Amino acid sequence: MFDPTVFENLKVAFENQLYDLDTLDRKIDIINRKDRLELAVMSREFALQFKLAERASVSAEIQLTASLKDLAAEILELKGETPSCALRLRFYMEMHDINEQCKLVEQIMRRIWEPDTVPTQTISYVYGTEAPIYSNVIELSFNRQINEEQMDDIPELITHMLQTLTQLNEAAG
């Protein structure tokens, strides 16, 4: 009989919550989904990208990853190892004034998430454009792995993501 991994259980929990917000509550629109098994290194990746319904300027992404070591610890029931996976959150937005808007983004992220580490903002633009539009990828990583013990935290995490999307949409103008 198949016994789902921590990765699978967390993936399904995130899917259930987010698809309900999309189809039943109409608070978000899911715009992209990835569910990968990377055969080269035997790892798993799941990502679900969404935006607030009827607001297309900023999107968010939840990403779960499990390495070969993470999966083997669980499947082989290795002593001293706790089955878990990594959680990463990303927000995507466009901006025109990186000096002002990046500061505002950092303030928003710190206020809502109170992170242990500073969120990373990666800026890119198309060279040669007269008035460049900058793409900002804001990434929030966590200092620890997650497992099924954090399952009850998923609704609060999603609430924080929706709050972040609302404030980043306002900052995007």
Structural commentary:
With 173 residues, the chain is of the alpha+beta class. The protein has one domain (6-172). It has four helices and six strands. It has helices spanning 6-24, 68-75, 98-113, 154-172, and strands at residues 28-38, 43-52, 58-66, 86-95, 120-124, 134-141. Strands 1-2-3-4-6-5 form a six-stranded antiparallel beta sheet. Strand 2 (43-52) and strand 3 (58-66) form a beta hairpin. Helix 3 packs antiparallel against helix 4. The N and C termini lie far apart (52 Å). 24% of the residues are buried. The model has no long low-confidence stretch (mean pLDDT 93).
Quick description:
By secondary structure, this protein is of the alpha+beta class.
- How many independent structural domains? 1
What's the number of helices?
4
Q: Ranges with pLDDT <50 over ≥5 residues? A: none
Task: Summarize the amount of helix as a percent range.
Answer: 25-40%
The CA-CA distance between the termini, in Å, is 52 Å
**Strand pairing plus helix content: what structural class?**
alpha+beta
Mean pLDDT: 93
Shape: globular
**Major β-sheet, in short?**
6 strands, antiparallel
